[in-house]
Design a protein that fits this description.
alpha+beta; two-stranded antiparallel ribbon; Repressor of RNA polymerase III transcription Maf1
Length: 194
């Protein structure tokens, strides 16, 4: 995944990290990535495809119902290359965003396909408002900037729910975190918001 240096994101990101009135700290950030392989992505994709072949072999020994469940994902049937690529892109985005972590072994069950971009936008807005930050949304026109980069109408949105030590924020004593991926298949681009 190639990091895209978006000038407007560089302006908004400092506003997404702030102190709350209760002396807590919010560390937010927006990052954009191209779905072009960069660095270790080819090696990761090969690992990922080999792991899928092992899973496929395992699924063939299950009952038809279990096999179907085993190959179903928030991205579509994992028997389809396009579905596996979406999962790969999200994992590669996490690896690029948190280079000190290895997300190769997170599972499809840790991702959710969100119903639509608007429900995610409302959730993020509510979280920012509750934490006391209206500046990013109002003054910096957060969603207009994101829309310009990713075209929200054409996005599929996924969330990631880390488990235990796969959460890069767990060791900081965080109270909560969110991880949203706005994926535009046509632009071959992911915007990651955490």
């Amino acid at each position: 995944m190639k990091y895209l240096d978006i000038a407007d994101f560089n302006i908004i990101n400092p506003v997404l990290s702030f102190e709350t009135s209760g002396e807590n700290r919010v560390n937010g950030r927006l990052e954009a990535y191209s779905c072009k392989f960069a660095g270790a992505d080819k090696k990761l994709y090969k690992f990922f495809e080999n792991k899928f072949q092992e899973d496929l072999l395992e699924a063939s020994s299950l009952s038809p119902e279990q096999s179907l469940s085993h190959m179903t994902s928030p991205f579509g049937p994992l028997t389809e290359t396009s579905s596996r690529k979406v999962l790969f892109y999200l994992i590669a985005t996490l690896n690029a965003s948190f280079p000190d972590y290895d997300f190769r072994f997170i599972t499809k069950e840790q991702f959710t396909h969100e119903p639509d971009a608007m429900s995610v936008i409302n959730s993020i807005n509510s979280t920012l408002f509750t934490a006391g930050n209206t500046t990013a949304i109002q003054r910096y026109r957060l969603w207009e900037v994101v829309d310009k980069v990713i075209d929200l109408q054409e996005c599929s949105v996924y969330s990631y729910q880390p488990e235990g030590d796969s959460d890069p924020f767990a060791e900081n004593g965080s109270i909560w975190s969110f991880h949203y991926f706005f994926f535009n298949r046509h632009l071959k681009r992911v915007v990651y918001f955490s």
